Structures are given as C-alpha cells and as structure tokens.
Amino acid sequence: MSRYSIAALERFEEEIGEAVDFMQNGYLFVLTDAKELGTFRENAGRQRELGVPVDVLTPEEAKRIVPELAIDDVVGATFCAKDGIANPHAIVQGYSRRAREMGVRFQTSTPVSGIEVASGRVRAVVHDGTRVEVGTVVNAAGAWAGEVGRLAGVEVPVRPFRRMVFTTQPLSWLSPTLPMLIDWSTGVYMHPESHGMLMGESDRDEPSSFNQSVDWDFLARVGEHAARRVPRMADAELKTGWAGLYEVSPDHNAIIGPVPEISGFFCANGFSGHGMMHAPATGLALAEWIVDGAPRTFDTSSYSIERFRTGSSLPEHNVI
Q1: Which residues of 305-319 are buried (b: 16+ CB within 10 A; e: fewer)?
Q2: Rounded to whole angstroms, how far apart are CA atoms 159 and 190?
Q3: pLDDT per residue as tens digits for the range 239-250
Q4: Distances (CA, A) of 181 to 42, 67, 91
Q5: Which tens digit of pLDDT belongs to each residue from 181-205?
Q6: Which among 260, 266, 253 is positioned nearest to 149, based on CA atoms?
Q7: How many angstroms separate the CA atoms of 192 and 266, rounded?
Q8: How far, in Å, are 4, 197, 255, 294, 300 from residue 297 at the CA level?
Q9: Hey, CA dihedral for 19, 275, 108, 139, is it positive or negative?
Q10: Residue 125 CA, distance from chain mean position
Q11: What's the first-to-final CA gap in the chain, in angstroms?
C-alpha cells in the first residue's frame, strides 16, 4: 500500500491536476539501541524483499546525510530515499475537485445524526432532520470513527489521541533536502517546513481525548529532544505550533473493509498516523470492495475489523 501510494503521489499533479509538493527527501530513522537496530535491520530486509529500497547505515553514513546530526550515542540508522512528505490539504483539494468534475456532490459542515439500519443492511443517513436513502456508507471519520460507528450500532475500536507539532523561524543552516529525521529513542521527529524546522513527538502518557489545544509546556520536552539529536536546534526560535488528533486502533493498524453484520457499511479508520501515507491505496481498496465486492489490488484481510473479535491482530510496534 505504501508503494502504491508513493507512486500515486509521484504522478498526482499529472493525473489529478494539483501540485501537492511531494518532496522525496527520504526518511532517516536513527537508532541508539543495538536490539532496536537489529529489529530495524530485519524489517529492512523484509522491506527490500517487497521492493522497498531501504538501506541500513552506520552512524557515519547517517551523518553524511544530515551533517548536523549528533551521533555520539547512535549505533545505526535506516534510510529510504523514496519516502517523503507532501501537502495533505492539496491532496484533499485535488481529489475533491476531480470528484466534482466527475459528478460527485459534497455536503460539508453537515453533521450526520443517524444511520438507519434495517434487515442487516444500511438504509439511510439522517442529517439536519433530513433522511437520505443510501446503499453504502463509508466511515472515514478519522478520530470520530467510533462515534460514527455507534450511529449504526457498530463498535469501531478507534480512539482519539492528541498530537502536537511546532515549527521554528527560518534557519540559515537548514538544507531544504534534509530528510524526515526520526530519533527512535525519544520519538522526536523533524523535517523542513517553510524554511524552518517542524518538530514533534508523542506524549505516550497522555490519555485519549478530543483535546486539540496546544500544551506549550510540552514544547520544552520536544525542543530538548530535538536539540539533543541536532544540536543546532538549540538556538532555533519558535514560530508557531498546533495540535490535531490521531485515530488510533488497538494494534496501531488500519481498519479497512466491510463490517460483516451490516451490509453496505464500510470502514476506513484507525490509521494511527499513517492515514495520509496510505490514502490513495485505501481509496482504491474501498472502491474495489464497493464496486467489485472484494479488493483486487491489495489483500486487506489483515485489516478486517473482525481481527479484534477473533484475537488475530498483529500489533504494529514501529509507531511514533
């Protein structure tokens, strides 16, 4: 799904007609623990078998990619040059504009207050007191997936967790080709943003909530970790910060496909931070489910919601 989505973003402007600023500077994961490096080495081997060009690097090789990197405690790193970042707003606008051109109608700022289910299938949605008969409902409500599922009487195991990011003022030393840098020991990540640096990390002790306010006290922790890995960040001046919500499933993997007990109700939820990365592939998989009755391009069986009921899920450990 990652390979398909990368290819879709590479041709997005040509195919969809929208520039999405897809910068393939790569992802650099920096490891400070030998056991974790071993796990990443095994993962890299598997990824190469699947056609993903991931390299395992020495600390010195990592520093050649990011000269400002502190490597005194680094035992190794992994790097994939095909990885990158893109503008999520532009992706949404591109897809929605093309959809309108093809006859799709959008109703924004229109909360759905009910989903009618009868005889084991979806019959209608209700919004603003208006009942609209439908044959298919796709729950792609992000952090609100659980609430939307409950409207149809379905338990979708997705919870919201706040995530915060901060950006600095422009940095004269910052190369625009700097990769996404992830320090696995602390979870802090950084990448260029508007001539400055964007940085963030997860607060693993924070409980689930819909809180989207910025905790400015948390900035000190993020800044400390960023400066530990890239010492020149210690002198960076703050520009702004904002917060949003991750939609997290119990195993940190997506929920993609139909809900067995309700015909016509599909899920695209629980991406746990990978949603934009896999959006093109997820859209295709859902379209194939709806039109053809089963996905043809990808095997999405491991993403079935049923895995949480049968205990067959495989947790994703490499999440930040």
Answers
A1: bebbeeeebeeeeee
A2: 25
A3: 999 999 999 999
A4: 20, 12, 23
A5: 999 999 999 999 999 999 999 998 9
A6: 266
A7: 36
A8: 10, 37, 17, 9, 9
A9: positive
A10: 28
A11: 19
Whose tokens are 């600023």? That residue is: 21
Instruction: Please give the Cα distance from 181 to 85 (Å, whole number).
Output: 12
Average pLDDT over every residue of 219-225 = 97
Amino acid present at 268: A
Please give the Cα distance from 161 to 273 (Å, whole number). 10
Tokens 């695209």 correspond to what residue?
Answer: 268
| Residues with Cβ within 8 Å of residue 23, at least 6 apart in sequence | 84, 85, 86, 176
Tokens encoding 29: 């994961």
Reduce the DSSP state of residue 124 to 3 states and report it: strand
Residue pair 256/303 in contact (Cβ under 8 Å)? The answer is yes
207 residue type, one letter = P
- Residue 301 pLDDT > 60: yes
